[in-house]
């Protein structure tokens, strides 16, 4: 089970799926499946595509659904000639509470660097939202025994210049790149050990007290069948769920895992 000092957080990353009309139906079905006590013990977050953010915001607020709204990406500048980008103040005005930054797909497909992730983290926190900072290694790095060094470098790069009190408010998501959308996943033991290493890096940066406050999720082919085993590890504070979050039945089972 997770640390009693850290509240579990289950976040769904819908990536580039669902129109805003489809998204309404999924959210309404998910809310029907969840019980009041599910929200009392776990933070539930949905990160729809950009075009669905406003629609999901109004749905959650109108129906009084206690799911937190998240965004999948942000740009670090507040405004300007940045065609196709969205700024932190724009997201904040939609009552977005969480923002995914540094997802492996952003790093690999769009060339995001640790420096860019760091700028995004600062922009998100400036407008009082919570970053979900993604870190993860490739299969080649894993097989070469470079996982610890790779993750430590990503954490240090993302948190450069961030003070301890601000770091404590962040969420980190360990998402092994080789397990995302592949059906493969790290064993609960491996995920727990690796996340323990991430927390050790945070302790080197900020001290153990602050490191123990930071919630660290696991992401990578999380399903109803493996969530309980993952969450049984004391190092793991939740999950960043991709494909399984698109199905409200599966996502509800993940949120309601047997505690």
Name of the CATH architecture: Alpha-Beta Barrel
- Distance between the amino and carboxyl termini: 8 Å
| Structural classification | alpha/beta
> What is the tally of beta strands?
8
Total number of distinct structural domains: 1
Helix content: 40-55%
Q: Counting H and I runs of at least 4 residues, what is the number of helices?
A: 13
- The first-level CATH class name: Alpha Beta
- Sketch the topology as an H/E string, one letter per element: EHHEHEHEHHEHHHEHHEHEH
Mean pLDDT: 95
Give the oligomeric state of the chains in this entry, treating copies of one chain as homo and distinct chains as hetero: single chain
Biggest sheet details: 8 strands, parallel
Task: Summarize the structure in words.
The structure is a single chain. With 259 residues, the protein is an alpha/beta fold. It has a single domain (9-33, 42-255), classed as TIM Barrel, CATH 3.20.20.70. It is 44% helix and 14% strand. It has helices at 20-33, 36-41, 53-62, 88-92, 104-110, 114-126, 139-143, 147-158, 164-167, 188-206, 208-213, 227-231, 248-255, and strands at 9-13, 43-47, 68-71, 98-101, 130-135, 171-174, 215-218, 238-241. Helix 1 packs across helix 13, helix 6 (114-126) crosses helix 8 (147-158) and helix 8 (147-158) crosses helix 10 (188-206). The longest helix is centred in the last third of the chain and has 19 residues, at 188-206. The termini are close together.
